[in-house]
Write a structure and sequence with these properties.
The complex is a heterodimer of chains A (about 375) and B (about 400).
Chain A lengths: L7 H17 L2 H9 L6 H9 L17 H13 L6 H15 L2 H13 L4 E4 L15 E5 L2 E12 L6 E7 L10 E7 L5 E7 L5 E12 L12 H37 L1 E2 L2 E2 L4 H24 L8 H30 L9 H13 L5 H12 L1
Parallel strand pairs in A: 1-4
Antiparallel strand pairs in A: 2-3, 3-7, 4-5, 6-7, 8-9
Helix pairs in contact in A: 1-4, 4-7, 5-6, 5-7, 7-8, 7-9, 7-10, 8-9, 9-10, 9-11
Chain B lengths: L6 H17 L2 H8 L6 H14 L17 H13 L8 H13 L2 H13 L4 E4 L15 E5 L2 E9 L9 E7 L10 E7 L5 E7 L5 E14 L10 H11 L7 H17 L6 H29 L11 H20 L28 H7 L10 H11 L4
Parallel strand pairs in B: 1-4
Antiparallel strand pairs in B: 2-3, 3-7, 4-5, 6-7
Helix pairs in contact in B: 1-4, 4-8, 5-6, 5-7, 8-9, 8-10, 9-10, 10-11
The chains are: A alpha+beta (about 375), B alpha+beta (about 400).
């Protein structure tokens, strides 16, 4: 029968992540990290490495463990804690791209560095005009003998301000939005011609606009020696990232629902707790249903993210992202409204959950984008 | 999502399919698939065919004629019969009164009432709501006064679905007005042929006659037809409402509606309309989401666990999706939803349709389906229950 229960190992992962978030990831220290130079804490990152989390979702042969469901277990807990360390950007996305496209020697070096916590990677795939299409690549890769020269601009590179290296998608052949003709290169952040302009994002995260100006890279920087299939790799990685943030949004929604119900039980107006008002009760029930439904769908479909069939993976991801975004929007907006003024403040954590949900809704395909893809696949 | 059922479960699925092919009237299935209505005979014929196989009430305890199926087998049975468009089970006997009878009834009541429900020989109706007792059911006023070894019942029930087909009705009646309102209610089984019962059809907005007002005037009901103790009927009624919960929440029916909607949308040239495609995609995801919740329930039941919080909202979402599907069908058909053909959904209707042949049942179904968020404990009542018992508000 269907196995929707967590395995023993998944349970241990969840318990350790929940414990970490509850004990060691206080809102105040997160706030300091967000305001700090890197936007996260290096010592926390090292702790992630020692807990084995930086290999979750990566191949076992290179120090990793588990697949999409394990990634989801971890992301849900990290979501509850509003964790800003770059697990999504580095492990779920950039390292996964290496795992999918790299040659063994590249995987050995790069994944080894990621899993140990010594190497930070970011995936530079999006561009100022690409919106949600990973095949839209204007950045050019031109062969120069054995080597390549890269020119172009990459946008919204998550945690791109602290990355040691970028995995860059660049077009070696074909038109701007062709699926074929895209190559993936590993580029040092400090290489000549690479400029990363870092900035904070409104959810407490970091990103960078990365410009590449006549950046010369050696032949062995090309992942897997394949200069044409990169867009498909990125598409899979973006699907996996979408699934991961769906799981993260479960943690965010659960946190907001708990916060809202607790607040409604204690906040008194008109001589009674506001949770006694039916108009508010029904809205909290709607929030509960939105979360539980998202939980059901992700519990059943998350396994399909690891499917060998692209169409099956895409259908599952689009269903999950459309559902979780819809639920997350409703839960986030309602949580603010039901709290009232207090949730408008920067000091109160609800506003930060809300902003993270809002960021998720603009990443890896929004509701309309996923409905369109779902319609194409399912209808 | 491909769900990994065991080879034994898949063999069972094949057996169910073969049985449906052999025994379920294709004309009835076609009517269900096209959204048309069924006659009493269609329901009874399918129930009797299932009864001959021993499958008419599989969820019952084995000693009363149920099957010792696993949760997965129940799931598969509901999925296959729903998917094939078999006449849906009529709940009043098998799913409502029967569990009350075998749980709280005496041996004589069990022996008398359970076998004919199982066989499909007796049709039941539900006597709960009254004109002034809807969501607030405990305010019911129909009276039963003890007179020797009979109760004398006076009052009126409303929304009695298919009372015109019913042989028996189960009834909540007030036997005491002392103490809490819930404590003066008694659960009675009443023969519909008893003198003093009058039916008044209620025509609903789609033009159908599905529900009735059922008037009781000095109806004499033997005390032997009382379930359990006098004044304890509320307990039995609440048990019944709880028993209703585990079902497929209409997932197979919703999938059927989606298939029909896609055909209509294709024919109406809406398949390429991005806005309508998105609405269909959204609805399809909602159906898959509800199905996922059912699978979570199934997984919990298989593991012998309490269904937990997720069970509490399936009525809400199942009915919302049902309404959404009828609304999308309205939108897809467009102007030809207007011709009024009140009998278009009824068995035996064979007039030349106005407009496309799929159009006739769409508006009546949309109108009729407004009921689903009202009956069985309105969705607002369901939300009250979740607010109180799940959220602790």
């Amino acid at each position: 029968m269907l196995d929707l229960e967590l395995s023993e190992e998944q349970r241990l992962l969840k318990d350790s992540a929940d414990r970490f978030v509850a004990r060691d990831y206080a809102f105040e220290s997160r706030r300091e990290a967000v305001a700090g130079e890197d936007g996260f804490r290096r010592e926390v990152w090292r702790r992630f490495a020692s807990l084995g989390w930086l290999g979750v979702g990566l191949p076992e042969d290179f120090g990793g463990s588990g697949g999409a469901r394990e990634t989801a277990v971890l992301m849900e807990s990290l979501g509850r804690g509003l964790v800003v360390e770059p697990y999504l950007a580095c492990v779920v996305m950039a390292a996964k791209a290496v795992a999918l496209a790299g040659a063994d020697a590249q995987k050995e070096e790069l994944l080894g560095g990621v899993v140990s916590g010594d190497l930070l990677l970011s995936l530079a795939y999006a561009e100022p005009r690409s919106r949600y299409d990973p095949a839209h690549v204007e950045t050019r890769a031109e062969a120069a003998g054995d080597a390549w020269v890269l020119n172009g601009r990459k946008g919204l590179v998550l945690n791109g301000d602290t990355a040691d290296r970028f995995v860059v998608s660049a077009r070696a052949a074909g038109g701007v939005a062709d699926e074929d003709g895209v190559a993936l290169f590993v580029v040092d952040a400090g290489a000549d011609g690479v400029h990363a302009r870092g900035y904070p994002t409104n959810d407490g995260g970091r990103a960078a606009e990365v410009s590449l100006e006549n950046v010369a890279v050696a032949a062995d920087a090309l992942l897997g020696g394949d200069s044409t299939g990169g867009a498909r790799v990125v598409a899979e990685v973006v699907d996996r990232a979408a699934a991961a943030v769906c799981a993260e949004s479960l943690g965010l929604m659960a946190a907001l629902n708990d916060l809202t119900v607790d607040y409604a039980k204690t906040r008194e107006q008109f001589g009674q707790p506001i949770g006694k008002f039916q108009a508010l009760q029904h809205r909290m029930v709607d929030m509960f249903v939105a979360l539980e439904e998202s939980r059901s769908l992700t519990a059943v479909y998350m396994a399909d993210v690891d499917s060998a069939e692209a169409a099956e993976r895409q259908l599952a991801v689009s269903a999950m992202k459309a559902q979780c975004d819809k639920a997350g929007r409703a839960v986030g907006q309602e949580a603010i409204q039901l709290h009232g003024g207090i949730a408008m403040t920067d000091d109160y954590i609800a506003s930060h959950y809300f902003k993270r949900l809002s960021a998720i809704h603009r990443l890896f395909g929004d509701i309309d984008w996923h409905l369109e893809r779902y319609a194409r696949l399912a209808l | 999502m491909r769900i990994a059922f065991t080879p034994e479960e898949e063999a069972f699925r094949a057996e169910v399919r073969d049985f449906i092919e052999a025994e379920c009237d294709p004309a009835a299935r076609r009517r269900v698939n096209e959204g048309l209505g069924l006659a009493k005979e269609d329901y009874v014929a399918w129930h009797k065919a299932l009864a001959a196989k021993g499958w008419s009430c599989p969820h019952w305890p084995v000693e009363h004629g149920g099957r010792d199926w696993t949760p997965a087998q129940h799931y598969i049975f509901e999925e296959e019969t729903g998917d094939a468009g078999c006449p849906p089970p009529v709940p009043f006997g098998p799913e409502m009164v029967a569990p009350v009878v075998w749980t709280f009834g005496d041996d004589e009541q069990k022996a008398r009432h359970l076998p004919p429900i199982l066989s499909g020989d007796v049709w039941w109706a539900q006597g709960y709501s009254e004109p002034n007792a809807g969501s607030d059911l405990a305010s019911l006023k129909t009276k039963a006064v003890l007179d020797g070894d009979h109760y004398v019942v006076n009052g009126g029930k409303t929304w009695t679905t298919w009372a015109q087909f019913a042989d028996w009705i189960f009834l909540l009646a007030r036997t005491s007005s002392e103490g809490k309102r819930q404590e003066g209610i008694t659960f009675l089984l009443v023969d519909m042929t008893a003198p003093g019962i009058a039916l008044h059809p209620i025509v609903t907005m789609e033009g159908g006659h599905e529900v009735n007002q059922t008037i009781f005037e000095d109806v004499r009901v033997p005390v032997a037809n009382r379930i359990g103790e006098e004044n304890k009927g509320w307990t039995y009624a609440k048990f019944l409402l709880g028993y209703e919960r585990f079902n497929m929440a209409g997932v197979p029916a919703a999938k059927r509606q989606m298939r029909r909607l896609r055909r209509i949308a294709d024919d109406q040239g809406l398949a390429g309309d991005p806005r309508f495609r998105h609405r269909m995609a959204d609805a399809d995801i909602q159906i898959r989401t509800l199905e996922s919740t059912m699978l979570r329930l199934l997984a919990a039941a298989t593991a012998g666990k309490d269904p937990g919080a997720e069970a509490s909202y399936i009525k809400i979402r199942g009915t919302e999706i049902d309404q959404l599907m009828t609304e999308l069908a309205m939108e897809a058909v467009g102007p030809y939803t207007l011709p009024f053909a009140p009998n278009a959904g009824a068995e035996g209707w064979n007039e030349e349709p106005v407009g496309p042949d799929y159009a006739a049942p769409v508006a009546p179904t949309y109108f009729n389906t407004r009921k689903v968020t009202i009956y069985g404990g309105s969705n607002e009542i369901q939300k009250n229950i979740i607010a109180k018992h799940v959220l602790g508000l």
